[in-house]
Amino acid sequence: MVDSFFIPGWADNSSANSSACVKNDGFKYPLYSTVFSIVFVVGLITNVMAIYIFTCSLKLRNETTTYMMNLVVSDLLFVFTLPLRVFYFINQNWPFGSMLCKVSVSLFHTNMYGSIFFLTCISVDRFLAIVHPFRSRALRTKRNAKIVCVAVWVLVLSGSLPTGFMLETTSREKNKNNATFCFENFSSKQWKSHLSKVVIFIEIVGFVIPLLLNVCCSIMVLQTLRCPQTISRGGKLNKTKILRMIIVHISIFCFCFIPYNVNLVFYALVRTKTLKGCFVESVVRTIYPIALCIAVSNCCFDPIIYYFTSETIQNSIKKKKSQIDRSYEVKFSEPLQSETSSNLQCNLRNLKAKVFHSDPSE
Fold it and tell me: Where is the G-protein coupled receptors family 1 profile domain (predicted)?
């Protein structure tokens, strides 16, 4: 039994070559249950904090924060499904029904490719603001940002929902008990008929084009920062901040999404018999769970991008921190002041008693 969040059903390949290969991916179940539990806790806390800052603390909202808020929504939708996945990977049984299985698979794709598109929107917006600050003023508006976000949601959902709802839960006998499986039962017929075409479309539109846009925008921003006019306009400090922002953005984008999407290409080549052999199948089987866990971790890394991308968010966090520090100072200084005041009053009373009630014969 082998899982696949995008193309479940490796186990459905019943060819002699596949059955002769030794499966070596049993490590994935404890890996998934552990990593997904961590991602659920960390992702829930950080994204709830992010949405609190966006909705309650930020007084100034712009097009960048619009993209970020949509990215938070995408992350939270996926994070809420993780407990179901953890339960499944621990018990290797899906008792939640076919509909929740389909929704869970769809939300995985929505989160991954929604994150890719919204991060790309942030990168393009930064490019326009730095490279074309005056000419882009008419484009960089909150209204246009909302239109772009709606277009992203339509594009992502139109690809992820059909993929998820093509999936059906299956029941098999496991240890003399019937177990229902999710995430792993696309038939070979489905795969050979159209899923390979879906992978090609998803990889080009959902990964390759956004990756090229992110890299090209970052390169042009760096080239602009090298110009003397930019240095005189923004100063060394702003240049350092932007450079750090780009490094964090590209590092997280590449770390989270390149391993999974590259492995998905090889997965497709193996399933369509373009690549044959037990060694290739074994390598792809081994890499896939690790790449998937890395991809899922983007829910935890996205709040880091919020912090480095928006100076408004940094100021908001620093303001909250200073307020907490002041409250602690007040909390601990009041008892100290009260104790000092009471000691002073006590000393004054003792001194008064000695002056007015002392023995004259002494």
Answer: 46-306
Q: Report the C-alpha gap between 159 and 194 in whole angstroms.
A: 13
> Closest by alpha carbon to 113, among 71, 76, 147?
71
Phi, psi of 177 (to 5 degrees): -125, 150
Q: How far apart are CA 226 and CA 229, in angstroms?
A: 9
Helix 82-91 × helix 98-131 angle, to 10°: 130
Other C-beta atoms within 10 Å of 61: how many? 15
pLDDT tens-digit profile of 7-60? Answer: 444 444 444 444 567 767 678 889 999 999 999 999 999 999 888 888 877 766
**359 or 196: which carries more pLDDT confidence?**
196
Say which residues have a Cβ less than 8 Å from residue 115's Cβ, sequence separation at least 6.
71, 74, 75, 256, 257, 298, 302
* C-beta of residue 251 within 8 angstroms of C-beta of residue 161: no
Going by the DSSP 8-state scheme, the letter that residue 174 receives in this structure is E
Measure Cα distances from 209 to 205, 212, 294 in Å.
Answer: 6, 5, 21
CA proximity to 261, closest of 92, 135, 91, 109: 109
User: Cα 116 to the chain's mean position, in Å?
Assistant: 10
281 burial via Cβ count (<10 Å: 0-12, 13-18, 19+): buried
pTM score of the predicted model: 0.78
State the Cα–Cα distance between residues 210 and 223, nearest whole angstrom. Answer: 20
- Residue for token pair 């909250």: 320
Can you list the positions of beta strands (E) in the chain? Answer: 170-174, 177-181
Task: Choose among 136, 125, 5: nearest CA to 65.
Answer: 125
In terms of CATH, what superfamily is 10-309? Rhodopsin 7-helix transmembrane proteins (1.20.1070.10)
Partners of 171 in the β-ladder: 180
Q: Please report the pLDDT score of residue 307 as a whole number.
A: 73
Say how far apart CA 158 and CA 220 lie, in whole Å: 32
Q: How many CB atoms lie within 10 A of CB 134?
A: 6
CA 118 – CA 210 distance, rounded (Å): 10
Rounded CA separation 124/115 (Å): 14
